[in-house]
Amino acid sequence: MPAPIVAIANQKGGVGKTTTSINLAACIAAAGKRVLLVDLDPQANATSGLGLEKLEGGSLYGPLLGEGNAQERVRPTHCERLSLIPSEVDLCGVELDLGRFEDRLMRLSGLLAPLRDGGEFDVLILDCPPALGLITLNALAASHHLLVPLQCEYYALEGISTIRRLLDQLRDGGVNPTLNLLGVVMTMFDGRTRLSQQVVAEVRQHFGDAVFSTVIPRTTRLAEAPSFGKPIIQYDPYSAASAAYEVLANEVLARLGLPAS
């Protein structure tokens, strides 16, 4: 059975997308699943956030243009059962280069097929750049599921409405008819403020069961963890943020039909 592919995307920056990618992947791996995290953001924050160096030629830039394959880009991390395909700055140029291919939207799907079908991984997670360019479109075309992180602020709904329209276009246009919204996760939640509580309530009213029960708190320790190259469950395993991502991982696994080991 092919491993589900989950794209974590929001065209708005600063919403906790990469933080969620790193920590969700680490917590799913800690739950006993073999996880591959694919860093598709040229900023390579997921790569450095897991303590790996940005090595020239290590990203999917070459394979996306027909030079090499994705399997040879997979690298182990210091988290058991968690592997990574890193990114680097060369991915900035792939948007222009992909434009000359007729199958420009399906390049990533073909690359990931052996990793999806090979039985080596239980879940693939794609960390997308904060833009709706060709890299993100490739990620959505390759994925079974979309997970959207939303910051607890009033502009949150604007971002997700754009993502929902794009999701419908990809499905209705035949690019990826099976793509579904796995869920919306509220990030940077501050329970001391009325604003955070109001935004969460409004998003739940708008999207109902699509919103995960878990909310991710805004904490200093969570913000510090990437600078040490560690997910929060390693950097501060007894923190509120660590507990939140562990619960979120269980919610995600349940929605994917993959009970924790």
Walk me through the structure:
There is one protein chain. 40% of the residues lie in helices and 17% in strands. The protein is of the alpha/beta class and 261 residues long. It has one domain (5-256): 3-Layer(aba) Sandwich (Rossmann fold), CATH 3.40.50. Strands 3-4-2-5-1-6-7-8 form an 8-stranded mixed β-sheet, with helices on both faces. α1 (17-30) crosses α11 (240-256) and α5 packs parallel to α6 (134-142). The longest helix has 17 residues, at 156-172. The model has no long low-confidence stretch (mean pLDDT 91).
How large, in whole angstroms, is the Cα Rg?
Answer: 17 Å
Helix-strand category: alpha/beta
**Could you give the distance between the termini?**
17 Å
Main β-sheet description: 8 strands, mixed
Instruction: Identify the CATH homologous superfamily.
Output: P-loop containing nucleotide triphosphate hydrolases
What is the strand arrangement across the widest sheet?
3-4-2-5-1-6-7-8
CATH architecture label name:
3-Layer(aba) Sandwich
Given this structure, which CATH class is correct?
Alpha Beta
How many runs of DSSP E, i.e. beta strands?
8
Beta-strand residue fraction: 15-25%
Order of helices and strands: EHEHHEEHHEHEHEHEHHH
The average pLDDT is 91
The fold-level CATH name is Rossmann fold
